[in-house]
Amino acid sequence: MLIDMSVTPLSADDRQRYARHLALAEIGEAGQQRLAASSALIIGAGGLGSPAALYLAAAGVGRIGLVDYDSVEASNLQRQVLFTHDDIGAGKAEVARARLLALNPRLAVDAHAVRLGPSNALDIFRRYDVVLDGTDRLAVRYLVNDACVLAGKPLVSCAIHRFEGQAMTYIPGRGPCYRCLHPLAGDALVPSCAEAGVLGVLPGVMGTLQATEAMKVLLGVGEPLLGRLLVYDALAMSFQQFSFQRRANCAVCGDNPTITRLEDDGEATMIEEWTPEELAQQLEGARAGSLLLVDVREPHEWAAGRVPGSVHIPLGTLAARATEIPPDRTPVFICAVGGRSMAACRYFAGGGRPAINLAGGVTGWSAVHGPLPRPEGCQS
Ligand SMILES: [Zn+2]
Q1: What is the third-level CATH fold of 270-369?
Q2: How many angstroms does the Cα of residue 226 sit away from the middle of ligand 1?
Q3: For 236-255, b where at least 16 C-beta lie within 10 A, e where not — what string?
Q4: Residue 193 — very low, low, confident or very high, per pLDDT cuts 50/70/90?
Q5: Which of 45, 136, 335, 343 has the fewest other C-beta atoms within 10 Å?
Q6: Is 335 assigned a catalytic role?
Q7: What gap in Å lies between CA 230 and CA 244, rounded to an integer?
Q8: CB-based burial of residue 222 (10 Å sphere; 0-12 exposed, 13-18 middle, 19+ buried)?
Q9: CATH architecture of residue range(s) 38-266
């Protein structure tokens, strides 16, 4: 990894601020200078990105980038410790930038309030020494992985679900990538029955582990999670590790990669994502007749209420019932919060058909448009 080593000596203030680092032989003055000369990019200023960004800023990583185009919502505050109640409604990237600079004014913090996609990922990634992925969107996780492999950037990838967290580190040329661990096909169609739930402190644990890995990568110390998947179970209070290897046939880091440019990822470009407001607009616009709202939740969830005009095809039955979606209609997939519906989108896009994901699912829809009506004939 190439880090700009044109370092400046530590000031008296720096020596005071980083005294506990300077006392560690593994960091010391040279390591602290190295951190100051290095940069980290954090994808998603959310539950994982919050603690990761705060600790990297506190540690003196000289430049921190934050990619997030969302605004702070009340439901974020249960775990996204970058934000306060007063921040509700404000743009996450800018709020996070101000918060990090308040913690450590000597840093440079770049707020990227953009939607990460194939057209901008490589451009942004090339400006940083390490990437931390804390996105909750599966499609973005693959995009981030592929961009890191193509740009030759180390990646610390983390995911959380309910009470469980997973972490792994990729270093170009030294081990497997995220796609080696989860080759796309097959993984994307796993229904999750409680995707909306996560223990608030869980991303705190995992985001802090992510920051730890990023610092080790930047400093060149310790043993990163190369070819090791770390799984944390908060209920059992256990950490387990699973070894995995680079796959020679990996689509992006394998011997004969098929993903050589991000633009080549036809699946990602065939998927659109709409907010509840955007969907409402589209349903009143010229495209309305070409859309079909498809709810992929489980029957008991569907019975409790649904977006008006939607049809019901549970995710587990989608492969068998895909022909029920006419070729001249573009499905808008809907689930509880947007995870399963994205899996449905990827399944469709994988078959060469465009699909649209309702971001935030019925939860987001009802937050904007009010309580969901129940399907006809379901009065209980
Ligand atoms: Zn790979």
Answers
A1: Oxidized Rhodanese; domain 1 (3.40.250)
A2: 12
A3: eeeeeeeeeebbeebbbbbe
A4: very low
A5: 136
A6: yes
A7: 11
A8: exposed
A9: 3-Layer(aba) Sandwich (3.40)
Chain length of the chain = 380
Catalytic residue among 180, 250, 335, 345: 335
Respond yes or no: is residue 180 known to be catalytic.
no
Question: What is the pLDDT at residue 188?
Answer: 40
Same topology, domains 38-266 and 270-369? Answer is no
Q: Decide: 36 and 62 in contact? Cβ < 8 Å.
A: yes
Q: Which residues pair with 130 in a beta bridge?
A: 40
Exactly one of 158, 193, 250, 378 is catalytic; name it.
Answer: 193
**Angle between the 361-369 and 276-284 helix axes, to the nearest 10 degrees?**
70
Q: Where are the domains of the chain?
A: 38-266, 270-369
Chain mean position to CA 60: 24
CA–centroid distance, residue 157 to ligand 1 (Å): 13
- What is the average pLDDT value for the chain, to the nearest integer? 90
Q: Which residues have their alpha-adjacent CB atom under 5 A from ion ligand 1?
A: 177, 179-180, 250, 253
Cα distances (Å, whole numbers) of residue 130 to 136, 149, 363: 19, 12, 34
Whole-number Å distance, alpha carbon 253 to ligand 1 midpoint, is: 4
CA neighbor of 96 nearest in space, from 86, 87, 107 = 87
First to last CA, the chain: 61
Distance in Å, CA 254 to ligand 1 centroid: 6
d(CA 324, CA 317) in angstroms, rounded, equals 11
Distance 227 CA to ligand 1 centre (A): 10
Res. 43: pLDDT tops 70 = yes
Rounded to the nearest whole angstrom, what is the distance from the C-alpha of residue 214 to the centroid of ligand 1?
Answer: 19
